Amino acid sequence: MSRPLTFYEFFAGGGMARLGLGDAWRCLFANDFDPVKVATYRANFESEDLHEGDVWKLSAADLPGRVDLAWASSPCQDFSLAGARAGLAGGRSSAFFGFWRLIEALNAEGRAPRTIVIENVVGLLTSHGGKDFEALCRALAKEGYSFGALEIDAARFTPQSRPRVFVVASHEPHPELIGGSPFHTQALRSAFAKLPADLQQRWCWWRVPAPSARNTDLAALLEDAEWRSEEDTDHLLSLMSPAHRARLADGSVGAVFRRTRADGQRAEVRTDGLAGCLRTPRGGSSRQTVVAVKAGKVRSRLLTPREGARLMGLPDSYVLPKTRTAALHVVGDGVAVPIVRWLSQSLLEPLLREASPAIAAE
């Protein structure tokens, strides 16, 4: 019988990476500094392995054992790996270096994680002309890792357009897991081409296959909720251009964002069966609206927290915060659960079990 694979979960949020990894894995340590996310994590998982607080205040001594995986969905706002290592005072994204100094310390003790996954927005590939991505690859190489990346859109799994980059690093890359993948996008190939030759030599084109075709759309995930007044809906429609109004055919269901354009605020709708990328609800324009057309009548309302959770691949048994804002904050700032599961089953578990046959034999 194989032993569970072990992991640390940094910037853990509501534990979506943990949920995606599933029963084949055991969490030894998790960390987040956001009280709302920490409370949600504790409501859904055993909490003895969860540490609330600033990642910069942790030390290697806080991290037990040597794990098979360190997962880090670090903050993406103003992401700059090439900048100063200033901690949270220097901007949320510099929290990455609070995480990375722990990896450096673990490596110095001979306890570095066997694999690392760093998840972030696609803009990581082009930020500062590619210098931020190069800095990340340089940091991985310095600690002895080989690495590659995959650009995966949650739309492959759930009806939400949510492209993200997953950098996967390993001390023991296995040649059978190198090859083609639909997740080697043009943006990713361009980022690789800009890397210096020494970093290209450490690159792995991870072989991760495409999943089966998604069989749900946005309409299938909606719950019974109260619609807005006709006046509110009419106002929303008044913000749409004629081209967007034309998309609202009878029987259609769509998702709407308000955006600021050159001619003022606009409401833009998509009716292709996908929701737009979930965001944290910092303002009204960041909250996604659902529209549905029946017998020529358009109805509208805000996306509910449970619908947002479903778009992230969370089961209905997942405990959400009680308020709409808090719940959407947790789900909008997470990683899509089915992507984590697919990445684990297709790459991480085979990679670790091939590299360490003892794991499978125990």
Describe this structure in words.
The chain has 362 residues and is an alpha/beta fold. It folds into two domains: 5-215 and 331-361, Vaccinia Virus protein VP39 (Rossmann fold), CATH 3.40.50.150; 224-303, no CATH class. The chain has 13 helices and eleven strands. It has helices spanning 16-21, 35-44, 95-108, 131-142, 186-193, 197-200, 218-221, 230-238, 242-245, 305-311, 324-332, 337-355, 357-361; strands spanning 5-10, 25-32, 50-52, 69-72, 115-121, 146-153, 163-170, 253-261, 264-270, 289-294, 297-302. The chain has a seven-stranded mixed sheet, with helices on both faces. The protein is globular and about 65 Å long. It starts with a strand and ends with a helix.
Distance between the termini: 6 Å
Looking at the overall shape, the CATH architecture of the largest domain is 3-Layer(aba) Sandwich
Could you please say which CATH topology of the largest domain applies here?
A: Rossmann fold
Classify the helix fraction into a percent range: 25-40%
Strand order of the largest sheet: 3-2-1-4-5-7-6
Structural domains: how many: 2
Average pLDDT, rounded to a whole number, is 90
Instruction: Report the strand count.
Output: 11
